Amino acid sequence: MGSRLVAMGHYQPSRVLTNDELARMVDTSDEWIRDRVGIASRRIADTETVADMATAAAGKALANSGLTPADIDMLVVATCSSVDRSPNVACRVAAKLGMAAPAAYDLNTACSGFSYALGTVDHALSAGAARNAIVIGAEKLSDFTDWTDRSTCIIFGDGAGAAVVTATTEGEPSGVGPVVWGSVPAKSDAVRIEGWRAYIQQEGQAVFRWATTELAPLALQACERAGVAPEEIAAFVPHQANTRIIDGIVKRLGMPNAIVAKDLVESGNTSAASVPLALSKLVERREVPSGAPVLLFGFGGGLTYAGQVVRCP
Ligand code: UT7
Questions:
Q1: Which of 124, 145, 167 is the last residue of a domain?
Q2: Are residues 110 and 10 in the same domain?
Q3: Minimum-distance ligand 1 atom for the alpha carbon of 22
Q4: What is the mean pLDDT of residues 174-182?
Q5: Do residue 280 and residue 149 come from a single domain?
Q6: Residue 253 burial (CB < 10 Å; 0-12/13-18/19+)?
Q7: What is the pTM of this model?
Q8: Is 111 marked active-site?
Q9: Would you say 55 and 92 are in contact if contact means Cβ atoms under 8 Å apart?
């Protein structure tokens, strides 16, 4: 038994925040942000909550899948920016979409959240604990942004991406490869959203160094465990943190045939939402053929990382 991605969906708030607007708020420039991070603009939520954005993305994924809310028996939301303690975001989404009785929980591993959540869902579906699941990454990071701190406020954005994942039937090949996941406890303070009135703080250079030196071998491990050669990978969808990080990882992967997702240019860094958001757009634009192997790899706060090869829905 295994699982496979059936369909994707995403949601972004309509408000576009450009680098030039940020340059009127803090001492920065469009040129610095494009050169050092690679972001041109990001989307910022207005009254939408994390649950609203998660629901919108999940609703679209569901519509694209042909399944109904009643078919879903497992719902997992990866997020680090939900303000409410209870109910969790997954229960809110289940209520808003009118689901019957899904197992519903949130998972917080910050920017690696979607691949972590997909890993747990794949395990549950493979074990027969559920049949049809929705995995969502959703963030409203603008609630936790210090708009006077130029080192962080230029980076983050809001949005959500969702995948409908279903258990494979007997004889059907699995469409979700084994997850490679872990954390770096010694660097647990490198990205923080701490305390009651929390703002995102990070040791940017430490994260940058770690990401560009340690992650490529782990991403390659995910390919190896899926039995897919790097040359076969049709698309690489890493966490959308910084184009220089993405380029640094790509250089070490040896994936000449892979489209590399760089959705951060127009979406900013949306933490747990960044991977499903970017994948959903690739699918929507039909840039990757259905069934082609796609390498997902998330990394960030914790520090945590997780990735797997999936077959494109
Ligand atoms: O998704 C969560 C995981 N987080 C990440 O993946 C973030 C990884 N890190 C990064 O992407 C980069 O480290 C940053 C984008 C956060 C920063 O880029 P950097 O090239 O590492 O810049 P830096 O922190 O070394 O700062 C270089 C200079 C400093 O000035 P001085 O001390 O050299 O005079 C900063 O004060 O750039 C200055 N600076 C800025 N200048 C203009 C910092 N932020 C800005 C800004 N505009 N927005």
A1: 167
A2: yes
A3: 48
A4: 97
A5: no
A6: buried
A7: 0.97
A8: yes
A9: yes
